[in-house]
């Protein structure tokens, strides 16, 4: 049977992608940030997951505003990165698993989530930066397979932290009922506090970020009780991405073990948090 | 019929990208989306004015694009992720845009970010529990 | 305040569009079918709705299989018909109401429906045939505004009759809370029994169709209790479209008045039902 | 890994268009979708074989397209609404396709439909209540 062996979180901003592309990991500005991923990489090396479910938002590569799905699930055998307008060369394709994707789609729709199924899907930095952060030291052929799960955090009205958490529970049900032996990790990406736009640009709220990290670990119901307005007020309009971490959290047990936590700020305009959680009893 | 008001309209210096904004900025963002293609970027770079007209931007939007006035573009319905695709042509990053929103230099903006985060390592210690780094 | 003044249902198959385009309404094959719409047209003439919400499915015009939303709501100021591959000239654009659409989107997403918002949307025969059936005698400029609400009934897994009914309740809430004075009708389209594909093509199940019509009027909980497998077994794989009638039903009161009902079969491959319902106390 | 089974697989003569079918028929349906454009229809009509190859159909799919074998196309992942866009080129309607699925003439197929619906007006009377017509 398939099994979720862990939940990870990370920021996914393009600046991190640029830093990796330009090999700045050991520069003073970046070193402490990148060091925070080393224990997770070691753990991944040890457990060798077969597949990663990457919960992220598209920022205008695959989805334009003509058609914005609240939840979109990749249902293809591979996913393409592409030019987002900055001329950065596209990464290699990431291998998917269409059978598992459709099984997840069936479970989620039966659980009354109104997802969009995507048999072709370009994946932007929101997906590629996390994959690179966790697996860049390996040849692409050794990467696990991946399934993109895109959450709309761009075009309001947005779904809620609670709905994301509930979607995670449905995702868990889907994985637990998949008959193939597979080790799966779920990666919640985006956040933490940042606001890119307007006269309020530049928000970083360390207190809020640390409270989120603590509550996501120990008291997810605190997070599911927050309104989007409240999160945006505290963490900035782009900080709302943190609701995607709740999909990962919903896919784990009520109680979790914290194998790793890390926080750094600022990275570009953002407070950056890393978690590695596994099911406790 | 007026667009409905929202609580988030009260957050200062913040332009939540809702239906109202997206509706008013549709042509602008559509143009920015086209910049995912290198051929389109070249066409735009060759004649920005003509390209804006081709995508049906309003006069105000077109002028703000040509002048790189990103606060105005935000107020006229530009989405920040799409504006980032336009900022490239003005040699600007999101941090430069952040500074422009404040009317300060990028170095000053970066200092604000550092100030906002300052002392976080001490906070991690206070927070207790194991933190890496 | 806006108000839902009635719920309508109709089939939407292309053959009906062809018959109108070729002016076959008085031919023996078609006459009884088209006669069934006359009382509804008279009622519409009398009540003059300002806007129609058309619940339909796209059959491969706006949505390809690369990206299939479970529920997609038009959020534009106009909608375009276009060539579906048969070379039939496109109808005139239909006027939308983006403000109301976004209000509906906000309500539905708050109510935990994970809809896709569409600021550009081509509308196929599933949308145009019903509009033409009800308003073709008027110049297009006198048509009400319309908002397309597309339900995926093509790419399985599909949502359920129950979920459609619940979406209708959220739609009702949205209309009831919209501050502008507007008279709105909700049109559930598609069905009734038909199967276009496979060695079982040609299903028409009059008993099931009439039972559906009766239960949709008097006992919607019967319909919400049906599985998609059961509906497809009885009404054919394309007969599953009847779940879209439940969005209309959910938008009305528990008890309704039947101002009109009509049934005819076969029309092309289909059992064709018409309903005009209004709220009872 | 095998695709999962579903209860609806037991319905005879029925090909529920689920993920498994859509996955196997993706190139075929993609080609059919392209026929929404008149220019593409002309290109296909001019050289059907080449057009099928351009869209990456399997050999079996390509042959079934050229021969107008719609039951085979259905079994190879064609969706009925997309197959309808291909049927046009063989001068076929959905009713002709329905007949082809049965291996009977269109007139015979239409008779089945009439038979299935026969007596519905009497049923309406039995049903009671007001029915128009
Ligand atoms: Fe992001
Ligand atoms: Fe249909």
TrEMBL record, chains A, C:
Residues 8-274 form the Extradiol ring-cleavage dioxygenase class III enzyme subunit B domain. Transmembrane segments: none annotated. Signal peptide: none annotated. GO terms for molecular function: ferrous iron binding; oxidoreductase activity, acting on single donors with incorporation of molecular oxygen, incorporation of two atoms of oxygen. Keywords: Dioxygenase, Oxidoreductase. SUPFAM superfamilies: LigB-like. It holds the Pfam family LigB. This is Protocatechuate 4,5-dioxygenase beta subunit. It comes from Marinobacterium mangrovicola.
Automatic annotation (TrEMBL), chains B, D:
This is Protocatechuate 4,5-dioxygenase alpha subunit. It comes from Marinobacterium mangrovicola. It comes from the Bacteria. Residues 28-113 form the Extradiol ring-cleavage dioxygenase LigAB LigA subunit domain. Coiled coil: none annotated. Keywords: Dioxygenase, Oxidoreductase. One of its GO terms (molecular function) is dioxygenase activity. Transmembrane segments: none annotated. Pfam families: LigA (PF07746).
């Amino acid at each position: 049977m398939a099994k979720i062996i862990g939940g990870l979180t990370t920021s996914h901003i393009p600046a991190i992608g640029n830093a990796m592309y330009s090999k700045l990991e050991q520069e003073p500005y970046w070193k402490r940030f990148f060091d925070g991923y080393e224990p997770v990489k070691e753990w991944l090396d040890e457990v060798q997951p077969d597949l990663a479910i990457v919960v992220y938002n598209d920022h205008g590569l695959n989805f334009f505003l003509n058609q914005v799905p609240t939840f979109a699930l990749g249902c293809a055998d591979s996913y393409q990165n592409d030019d987002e307008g900055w001329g950065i060369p596209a990464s290699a394709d990431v291998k998917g698993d269409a059978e598992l994707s459709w099984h997840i789609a069936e479970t989620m729709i039966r659980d009354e989530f109104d997802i969009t199924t995507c048999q072709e899907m370009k994946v932007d930095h929101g997906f590629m930066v996390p994959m690179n952060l966790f697996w860049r030291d390996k040849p692409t052929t050794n990467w696990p397979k991946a399934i993109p799960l895109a959450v709309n955090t761009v075009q309001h009205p947005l779904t809620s932290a609670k709905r994301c958490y509930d979607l995670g529970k449905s995702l868990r049900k889907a994985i637990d009922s998949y008959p193939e032996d597979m080790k799966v990790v779920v990666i919640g990406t985006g956040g933490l506090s940042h606001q890119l736009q307007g006269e309020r640009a530049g928000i970083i709220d360390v207190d809020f970020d640390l409270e989120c990290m603590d509550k996501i670990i120990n008291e997810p119901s605190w997070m599911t009780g927050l309104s989007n307005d409240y999160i945006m007020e505290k963490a900035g309009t782009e900080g709302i991405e943190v609701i995607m971490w709740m999909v990962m959290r919903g896919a784990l047990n009520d109680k979790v073990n914290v194998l790793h936590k890390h926080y750094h700020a600022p990275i570009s305009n953002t407070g950056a948090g890393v978690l590695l959680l596994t099911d406790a009893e | 019929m007026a667009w409905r008001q929202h609580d988030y309209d009260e957050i200062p210096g913040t332009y939540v990208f809702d239906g109202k904004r997206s509706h008013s900025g549709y042509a602008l963002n559509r143009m920015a989306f086209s910049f995912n293609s290198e051929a389109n970027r070249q066409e735009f770079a060759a004649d920005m004015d003509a390209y804006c007209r081709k995508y049906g931007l309003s006069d105000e939007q077109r002028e703000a694009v040509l002048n790189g006035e990103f606060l105005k573009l935000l107020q006229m319905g530009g989405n920040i992720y799409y504006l980032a695709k336009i900022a490239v042509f003005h040699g600007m990053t999101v941090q430069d845009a952040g500074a422009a929103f404040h009317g300060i230099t990028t170095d000053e903006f970066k200092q604000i970010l550092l100030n906002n985060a300052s002392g976080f390592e001490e906070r991690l210690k206070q927070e207790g529990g194991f933190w890496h780094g």
